[in-house]
């Protein structure tokens, strides 16, 4: 643990991944571990881990990278945090993100801009940019992230590491500060596929406190690592190599397809025809849910309250106006509009229908294939500042990750070569609750 903090202090001033360090808490937790008694039931004994700062940690500041929660110290642990600690993990600290996980570059954090581990002039991706950069820069072996529209996979791709977004309902969201409740999933950022499997072993499972968690057994996700993928059928959607996808990134994916063929799998081109509607549908659904979830931040119950207020309305309006950043306000306005009486049918209902069509596209492909591959992102990491004034271009960065959230599927991003010195992410998308096949295939590829 001491070595971990020495490394964090050496490396993080250049990366800015951490919002809060838990140095005293971590050292106490480590000292309290009975080293002699460490057994197989503590697979993370002594292992330092980082937690995205939209996941609550008892007694440890949790801000969601928002001024409105700037001084918020939770009174309980999220289920995933509890499970990691029960497995022996040591919480090293809380990691930067886009405010309330809304963004693709971590530039929407109210507190700091995290840098890409490979090139400090570039973004680490988002919204789990702090988690990805901390792992990729060698500060931690594992950090938790959340993925609503790509926020684990896209930063994993930009930093050349492994990002696992489990099936919706596989991992408890209890204690995760809600963004879009029908899309949010907790997962891991790690340097290896095996570490992703080991993490899922610990965090997956039914939770009485989250009614959307599935009551299914948790298999040993390491069980199929090392096994051959000979005979597996892989689909490569033509839309995932189409317009907007950088040609050099597409080339890396084609090379990956060849590598899978060399491992004995078949790779065929398929179509997911509704892909182009995923981003607009997502921004209506996610913003609508966010506008509702964020109503609780009213200046009364949590965190920031505006000064010198005149009356109760003034408390609400001024606390929210001063506490939320630009992107969060943009989403609240978009979501409130989409849900309003006059526009619900035209926007929210339509988006929900499109969501069903996107799910069916996937179902159809999975009738014949074991999993799907494609790029995780259309480009490699971009320059800090280059997209902040253009939200639509920023939104389009998620075109290849968002459909997966709308359908609730599991997906992994793994490193697949470089373009101009920057890592490329290969995305593997699986059937619901079939993380095991994805991990097996990713491990064979690795
Ligand atoms: N970039 C997407 C957004 O801004 C996805 C974010 C996420 O997955 N949390 O909504």
Automatic annotation (TrEMBL):
Organism superkingdom: Bacteria
Subunit details: Heterotrimer of A, B and C subunits.
NCBIfam families per UniProt: gatA
GO cellular component: glutamyl-tRNA(Gln) amidotransferase complex
Protein name per its UniProtKB record: Glutamyl-tRNA(Gln) amidotransferase subunit A
Location of the active site: 52 (charge relay system), 127 (charge relay system), 151 (acyl-ester intermediate)
GO biological process: translation
EC number of the protein: 6.3.5.7
Gene field: gatA
Family: Belongs to the amidase family. GatA subfamily.
Catalytic function, reaction form: L-glutamyl-tRNA(Gln) + L-glutamine + ATP + H2O = L-glutaminyl-tRNA(Gln) + L-glutamate + ADP + phosphate + H(+)
PROSITE patterns named among the record's database cross-references: AMIDASES
EC category: ligase
Described purpose of this protein according to its UniProt entry: Allows the formation of correctly charged Gln-tRNA(Gln) through the transamidation of misacylated Glu-tRNA(Gln) in organisms which lack glutaminyl-tRNA synthetase. The reaction takes place in the presence of glutamine and ATP through an activated gamma-phospho-Glu-tRNA(Gln).
Boundaries of every Amidase domain copy: 1-439
